[in-house]
């Protein structure tokens, strides 16, 4: 027990001695730290700064470094933007050059088009002037046409008379040509007569129809007898609206004898009269009723005329011309009233034939 207490006391003494030594060591170190701090404060670099200043500067440095990084990133972005803008600028320059070239081309085209427009405007003005003249002419013609359309009934009737006479003569000519293809028969220049060359019906110098030519005259008489009823009065005539809608009437059908100028005047006049008479008698013998066709005065329409050499249709200086002038003409003379009352008289006369049995 005593030994144990002694042991404990011994340990306490050792522990107390260790604590004292520790305290002495700590105190010595503290003193040394104070001395070092003093010497350090005395030996400090004149350029050194305090920690607060250092921290402030470090904070500014960090701020500057952050700003530098931001500026570098911004600079890189701006560099990329500049590269893009430079590429865009180059493209825009090319497009500008193309647009300038297009502008120059358009300016040239505008100049050409302007000149063309000036030319066209000049031509347009000329055409408008011509159009005004044409319009004025059309107006004048329209006025004249309106006047002409107000046709005088008498003029209209006389025009129809000429047309019907030509139609009748054409019908007779075509029929004779069909019957006698070799016979020379034509319409006169005035379309008022059928013209037969004298050589075609008569021997040279003879007033008598040759035997073979009498058949031509006989056939002509029968053809004429078929045409006359619708345009004449008398017992052998018959009118209807279908064959004569214009109410045209024949005054006379003259058998005209003509000669050339060879020989004496007396000889030629007698020869032309004899030839006309020979033709007349041959026709009346061939068509018994032909003399029953009467005009408005109730006279036979078939008649005879002789002119000798007075009415040549061509020169007598050549054999061919003389042969043409030796001829028989079958001339149609139409009734031509002097006023509209005359037209009414003709209409009434023809309609009276329509009412006959």
Describe the structure.
- A hairpin with a 5-residue loop joins strand 1 and strand 2 (193-197).
- The chain has 8 helices and 5 strands, in the order H-H-H-E-E-H-H-E-H-E-H-E-H.
- The chain has 357 residues and is of the alpha+beta class.
- The mean pLDDT is 85.
- It is rod-shaped.
- Among the domains are: 121-150; 154-354, 60s Ribosomal Protein L30, Chain: A, CATH 3.30.1330.60.
- It has a 5-stranded mixed β-sheet with strand order 1-2-5-3-4.
Sketch the topology as an H/E string, one letter per element: HHHEEHHEHEHEH
Radius of gyration: 71 Å
Q: CATH first level of the domain at 154-354: which class?
A: Alpha Beta
Spatial order of strands in the largest sheet = 1-2-5-3-4
Uncertain segments: none
Tally of separate helices: 8
Could you please say which CATH topology of the domain at 154-354 applies here? Answer: 60s Ribosomal Protein L30, Chain: A
Which structural class is indicated by helix and strand composition?
alpha+beta
Principal-axes geometry comes out as rod-shaped
Which range best describes the helical content: under 10%, 10-25%, 25-40%, 40-55%, 55-70% or over 70%? Answer: 55-70%
